[in-house]
Design goal:
Length: 195
């Protein structure tokens, strides 16, 4: 009996290791809205900090599977921390939307010369395969020269018909584009009011 166990255990381990080795991890990143960033303004903006809920603040993609249930997928991962991913895409989108090359990320730039500072608190970043993604974010824009602030909230739901992770990420990129548009509109309004 011991001899049989001595053979069975290593064989089972080899089979388990082979099964794990055949499922490669896939890495995803949000993408900015395509467009030319033709320079048409001298606005300067620092994006960040960006915070995300603890539930999704991890490398694994988190998907809703029920009313009060989520699943972390060990084989579908974010290529970088989600808050960095969101701030990078918002910055790229703002550069295009505002027509300025002067959009940087916090904390890489602590320049007091920036005209505006954008902080984003993501309240929910939900993903449901084959159904929808939801982004709910509260944001604050502060004009540096006088401290005047503008606060807003962007809540976006994007339908997802496909049942793959690439479709979820593409839908989340569209929700971040909407967030970026709302922030760009508020920056423009603050800039007009400060002239």
């Amino acid at each position: 009996m011991r001899h049989l166990a001595a053979i069975a255990i290593p064989c089972a381990l080899i089979i388990l290791m082979a099964g794990c080795a055949t499922t490669p991890a896939r890495f995803y990143t949000l993408s900015a809205t395509p467009g030319s960033a033709a320079t048409s303004s001298n606005l300067s903006v620092i994006v960040g900090p960006v915070s995300v809920p603890a539930t999704v603040d991890r490398p694994q993609m988190v998907v809703n599977t029920g009313a009060n249930q989520v699943r972390m997928d060990e084989f579908n991962l974010w290529a970088s921390p989600l808050q960095n991913n969101i701030s990078r895409v918002v910055a790229q989108n703002l550069a295009t939307l505002l027509g300025t090359p002067h959009v940087t990320l916090f904390p890489q730039t602590l320049s007091a010369d920036a005209g505006y500072r954008v902080a984003i608190e993501v309240q929910s970043f939900d993903s449901t395969l084959g159904q929808a993604v939801v982004l709910d974010a509260v944001w604050t824009i502060r004009r540096t020269k006088d401290g005047k602030t503008e606060m807003g909230r962007t809540t976006v739901r994007e339908a997802v018909q496909e049942t793959d992770y690439a479709a979820l990420v593409a839908a989340h990129s569209r929700t971040v584009a909407r967030l970026s548009q709302d922030i760009a509109d508020a920056v423009r309004a603050l800039d007009r009011s400060g002239q």
